[in-house]
Write a structure and sequence with these properties.
CATH class: Alpha Beta
Distance between the termini: 8 Å
Low-confidence stretches: none
Helix content: 25-40%
CATH superfamily: Hotdog Thioesterase
Strand content: 35-45%
Number of strands: 5
Order of helices and strands: EHHEEEEH
CATH architecture: Roll
Number of domains: 1
CATH topology: Thiol Ester Dehydrase, Chain A
Number of helices: 3
Length: 135
């Protein structure tokens, strides 16, 4: 499943040249990821209440074109890999049809009490496996 969410660049996300700061794209990826979970019928808040944390283990962003203050952007998010205790998301940030940034994040599932790795919750694993069957 690919999920899209729109957001508008805020002034504080830009540098002295009026361009979105490169680190802010990781926040845009986070918005995409949380909304992907919500659209899948899963809640990050519920995962945390159950003691599961999805920590970022790796992040990659490839910058192609700049975004500017007040641009309306679309963040496309897709689950790209699912394992027993980790998952990856792919992202495309667009202004209209123009691709500005692509990226991916790898997440490990941890027990929020101990910080130790643990299996993904059954509901997330089942939904992710289902999404993989559709692609």
């Amino acid at each position: 499943m690919i999920h899209e969410v729109k957001l508008r660049v805020r002034y504080g996300e830009t540098d002295a040249q009026g361009i979105v700061n490169n680190a802010d794209y990781l926040s845009y990826f986070e918005v995409g990821r949380v909304e992907w979970l919500r659209a899948s019928g899963l809640s990050y808040r519920e995962l945390e209440k159950e003691g599961h944390g999805l920590v970022v283990v790796e992040a990659l962003a490839r910058y192609k074109r700049p975004a500017f203050f007040d641009d309306e952007l679309t963040v496309r998010t897709e689950l790209t890999e699912l394992k027993r205790a980790s998952l990856s998301f792919g992202y495309t940030v667009l202004r209209g049809e123009e691709v500005l940034v692509t990226g991916r994040t790898l997440h490990g599932c941890v027990d929020l009490t101990t910080g130790k790795p643990r299996r993904l919750p059954a509901a997330l694993f089942a939904w992710g496996a289902h999404c993989g069957d559709d692609s």
